[in-house]
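Lab notes, practical 5.
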Amino acid sequence: MHATLEQIGLVGIVPVIAIDNAEDAQPLAQALIEGGLPCAEVTFRTAAAKEAMTRIAKKFPAMLMGAGTVLSVEQAKTAVDCGAKYIVSPGLNRSVVEYCLANGIAVTPGVATPTEVGNAIELGVEVVKFFPAEANGGVEYLKALAAPYKGVKFIPTGGIDATNLLSYLKLPYVLACGGSWMVKSNLINAKQFDEIKRLSAQAVQKMLGFELRHIGIDNSSAEEAMKGAAKLSSLLQMPINDGNSSVFVGTQFEFLKQMDPGKNSHIAIGTNFIERAVAYFARQGVGINEETRDEKNGKLATVYLNLEVGSFGIHLVQV
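Output from the prediction step:
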């Protein structure tokens, strides 16, 4: 898969934007970045698209900015000249796809039928845009559409918002979702960039679904862990579950049988998508402790951040 598309997958949400005034491009991009979405698909639906892309690329060169509603090779060339890192077309435009693939440009053509998916595969495309998603039957139709095509990833777009985002993202063949609910034209035209930032942050939190899973308490030995667990269990009338490396009291308290990262303890934070959560924290300058990576079935299951809050280490858990 093209590296740009892999990065889009780690962001998870692609804001789809129609900009009427190019002067709004940079403050809009800044609002998205600050809201946790360093990604945007600027559509060729307005006359300001070309200038808007140029301004975003100049001010925020690291942003995953692409061009949408690309209908011709000339538009694709223009978009790339303006700094677009990927090309999105509403349908399967063979000439656009062939041009992009021949020139190493990430491209996601729109598909809505098995025939179109098959044609995209024949052209060498690995990621397609399922569009318009809701109008074409939504999640249930996408499940049926994707079933025969192992290895193909989809970016559903069209009719997606905070209410149905997770139902798409939790499908294993969905790379990311496109949407405009956080960047509606009326918000952009009214220069309500603080609201766009708020809605973007809200979308990220909806996607990642951070929640407190349990508190971990370090101990120097298995005996000490069991002693502490027994005492708390008695006080709270909660059951004990003795495991290989720790003793749980209920599901909220973990007494570790050894010292883990964190001076005395850790906070376990659950997330819907741990790889996206790791990327989210990395963009904020917080890395992970590679030695603490724990994988199950070849996928990251738990890991500690290189961060302490008070005396608590921060432990991410895939839920």
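Observations recorded by the TA: Residues 208 and 273 are 6 Å apart (CA to CA). The chain has two domains: 3-208, 211-318.
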